Amino acid sequence: MCNGRVPTNRLVGFLSGNFSENTWRDEYLGVNAKVTNGKRRVPNGLTFQGSWAEWPVGDMGQTVPYYFTNNEFALVATVSIHEVPKEDSSPVPLIGVRMNDTSSTVLFGLSYTHEKKWLAIPGKSAASRFVDGWEPNETYQVLLQMDYDYWTIVVDKEEIDHKSYDKNLFNSHRISHF
């Protein structure tokens, strides 16, 4: 589903078409993702219907090859939403970053609504806003980025959310998975 050339400068992991049973293999031989009910429906990726994948970047016991995700990362995904959620439904989570606390808190991420709008997760920040723009079966490039000061969410080069975060979150917990 990737369109065009895949950037490789500083790339440390790449999930594409290497999938079998419940494992989505990292092309860079780093950390594989665990898939629940995913199906291969596109040449270089998977289709998820009522299912999900977890990429355990910080949840591997003593071996944590992607520890840097607690300081800085950029996660890019090509996504397509195949049907509009029911009218009375809550925003549907699409992609996010989770903590290793007891509630598996979503630090930040992206959801979509039945009104065909994007919404940042959590949608509590003053900068967070519903953004028009998704259509069923269209593909979108989604970027979740964390640097030393900010979390940023971008869809097809349009910023959905950009906010500073409390670094004290990482005093007792770490990022467990995407």
Radius of gyration: 16 Å
Classified by CATH, the class of the domain at 56-177 is: Mainly Beta
Q: How many helix segments?
A: 0
The amount of helix comes to under 10%
| Through-space gap between termini | 19 Å
Order of helices and strands: EEEEEEEEEEEEE
Based on the structure given, which CATH architecture of the domain at 56-177 is correct?
Sandwich
Show the helix and strand layout.
Blueprint: E1 15-20, E2 23-26, E3 33-42, E4 45-54, E5 73-80, E6 92-99, E7 106-112, E8 117-121, E9 131-132, E10 139-146, E11 150-155, E12 158-164, E13 175-177
Antiparallel strand pairs: 1-2, 2-3, 3-4, 5-10, 6-7, 6-13, 7-8, 8-9, 10-11, 11-12
List keywords for this structure.
globular, 178 residues, four-stranded antiparallel sheet, Jelly Rolls, 13 strands, mainly beta
Give a nutshell description of this structure.
With 178 residues, the chain is an all-beta fold. The protein contains no helices and 13 strands.
What does this protein structure show overall?
By secondary structure, the protein is mainly β. It has a domain at 56-177: Jelly Rolls (Sandwich). The protein is built from no helices and 13 strands. It has strands spanning 15-20, 23-26, 33-42, 45-54, 73-80, 92-99, 106-112, 117-121, 131-132, 139-146, 150-155, 158-164, 175-177. A five-stranded antiparallel sheet has the order 9-8-7-6-13, with no helix packed on it. Strands 1-2-3-4 form a four-stranded antiparallel sheet, with no helix packed on it. A hairpin with a 3-residue loop joins β10 and β11. It is globular and about 40 Å long. The two termini are 19 Å apart. The model has no long low-confidence stretch (mean pLDDT 78).
